[in-house]
Write a structure and sequence with these properties.
Blueprint: H1 12-19, H2 23-37, E1 42-52, H3 81-93, E2 98-103, H4 113-125, E3 129-133, H5 139-148, E4 152-154, H6 173-185, E5 189-191, E6 194-196, H7 202-213, E7 221-226, H8 243-256, E8 261-264, H9 273-281, E9 286-288, E10 292-293, E11 296-297, H10 301-311, E12 314-315, H11 327-343
Parallel strand pairs: 1-2, 1-9, 1-12, 2-3, 3-4, 4-5, 6-7, 7-8, 8-9
Antiparallel strand pairs: 10-11
Helix pairs in contact: 1-7, 2-8, 3-4, 4-5, 5-6, 7-8, 8-9, 10-11
């Protein structure tokens, strides 16, 4: 069967074979498929705001926001609706067209829902696309968010079903899949991926991608995270993943889900420019843009702009599941960056 076919019947043996291709062959296949569905020099760009930080009851071993780990992160209440809308306005002012809102909890309560719905409506009223990540959802909550105008919902599977219990015990894999099913049924687009570097095996990485690619419809966006090791979490001293193994994960994800946006997500700050360039070559075509990614840092905006300029990449302006910033705003930012570099002293 052709590698570029849209499939939902992947099996472990063939995925392992793809992972183990010579590196140049793997990248060539991924880039060839990528160019059949996307402009290879366009990248989606998202803005993300933490609307409720800390004191999450889940015990995810990687997370700085879990109440089970002493990371020094202070608990914050759900932000006021107007504050969220003001943040969205600021994001739009620099060109963002989608605004993602994340809350640290197991699931939204009935008390929280009216505020969340108003946030969605308020951001939509600005002419922006909306995205949320709120934990588990009930069927009614999914429909309520859809009715309010939510465009995307993020709910990661994190890892393979087999390795999952080594990372999280307070939420089942089946519950995650059920939330994705409710979101899809409600007509909301799905953003779902996983995390590398938690001690998983190559087989676990393959099985994670199989779970995603064998869904009835592929997620519109697949974030691949490189573990951000936070002091106080059980994974703080986990061994770093080999950079080429991370790039392989991106490439295999691109091959298995040709039409999905593959997002280079958390952990990007630890990647040098050369690794990020390889990630784009492997088929990654979406990033988070800004100084913070929920509670962990993200490469500064000017660094992103400078890298885009070096690589000849520009933010995508598509209306279809785009995380882009307006091209004119980015071009202006790039121009200012170049001017600042020319006028500043060398150190």
């Amino acid at each position: 069967m052709s590698l570029n076919a849209i499939r939902h019947d992947w099996v472990l043996s063939e995925v392992m074979d793809i992972f183990q291709l010579p590196f140049n062959d793997l990248i060539f296949k991924a880039q060839t498929i990528h160019r059949q569905y996307f402009d290879a020099n366009k990248v989606q760009v998202s803005t993300l705001l933490s609307i409720k930080t800390g004191a999450c009851p889940e015990d995810c071993k990687y997370c700085s926001q879990s109440i089970h780990h002493d990371t020094g992160l202070e608990k914050e209440k759900l932000l006021e609706v107007q504050r969220v809308i003001e943040e969205a306005k600021a994001a739009k002012a620099v060109g963002a067209t989608r605004f993602c809102m994340g809350a640290a909890w197991k699931h939204p309560t009935n008390r929280d829902m009216p505020y969340l719905l108003e946030m969605v409506k308020g951001v939509k009223a600005l002419g922006m696309e909306t995205c949320m990540t709120l934990g588990l959802l009930s069927q009614l909550q999914a429909y309520a968010l859809a009715d309010a105008g939510l465009d995307f919902y993020n709910h990661n599977l994190d890892t393979s079903p087999e390795f999952y219990q080594q990372i999280i015990t307070t939420r089942t894999y089946g519950e995650r899949l059920q939330t994705l099913a409710y979101v899809r049924e409600a007509g909301i687009k799905i953003c779902s991926g996983g995390i590398l570097g938690m001690g998983e095996t190559l087989k676990d990485r393959a099985n994670l991608l199989i779970q995603l690619a064998n869904l009835d419809q592929h997620p519109e966006s697949v974030p691949i995270n490189n573990l951000v090791k936070v002091k106080g979490t059980p994974l703080a001293n986990e061994k770093d993943i080999e950079p080429f193994d991370f790039i392989r994960m991106l490439a295999v994800a691109r091959i298995m889900m040709p039409k999905s946006y593959i997002r280079l997500s958390a952990g990007r700050e630890q990647m040098n420019e050369q690794m990020q360039a390889l990630a784009f070559l492997a088929g990654a075509n979406s990033i988070f843009y800004g100084d913070k990614l929920l509670t962990t840092s993200n490469p500064q905006v000017d660094k992103d702009n400078a890298l885009f300029l070096k690589l000849g990449i520009s933010p995508e302006k598509s209306q279809d599941y785009s995380d882009e910033v307006h091209k004119d705003a980015i071009v202006q930012a790039l121009t200012e960056q170049v001017q600042n570099n020319l006028s500043s002293d060398n150190f």
